[in-house]
Request: fold
Amino acid sequence: MSTQPTASAAELADRTLQLVAAAMFALALVFCLSVAEFFASESLAAVIDVAVKILAVAILGLMALLYFWKFRSMTPGQRRRELAEDGFLQIAFRKAMATSWMLSFLVLALLQALDNLVLERLPAMPLEIVIQGVLALMLLLFSVAFVSFTRSDSHDE
Amino acid sequence: MSDNLGNRIRVFRAEHRLSQAELADAIGVSRKTISTIEVGRFVPSTIIALKIARYFDVPFEEIFFLNDAS
Reply:
């Protein structure tokens, strides 16, 4: 049986952030599918509905499993301290949050300004779908920004 | 993130025969943080920079320097 070296608190904090970012991307997919369900035909919408539910349960299950498997060794105080440190991933996470907020704001402001070109041509949507669309936009932009800020250049040893 | 801040972490690591992971463990950051600082992709916080200098027991400016002399 091989013995794995114990990961430091900082490494665990990095993995936590990567896990949170992955969960946010998965959640973005769930919201995208929910919005797609509104526009799809009845038969397709039923399939998407089932897919959304399965995906949501799978995401929650996987995240809970990984969380308890990977991070139970960290005390709550350790977790709080390490996540607040100014490491590379922590800064990238905060930058991705700021970038996604800024880009979402720009997209929404642009849509508002061009309402007669875009919004008026869309079918009337319930508020729930609009909110899901905005959430999907923000989460997708966050995921893209986070991946772009943290992509590996393989300078690791 | 910045081309202006240079560093000699790789040199000091080599002198002390340390891997990135060992240095990261010693100062309480992740290996990714050390590797991105080394290649100049990430500008460390003052605290992390001072921890690195203190670990090698040298003044801060022996490890970090500005590339742009102006």
Summary: Chain A has one domain: 9-149. Residues 10 and 85 of chain A are 9 Å apart (CA to CA). Chain A touches chain B at residues 8-11, 13-14, 85-89, 91, 153, 155-157 (CB under 8 Å).
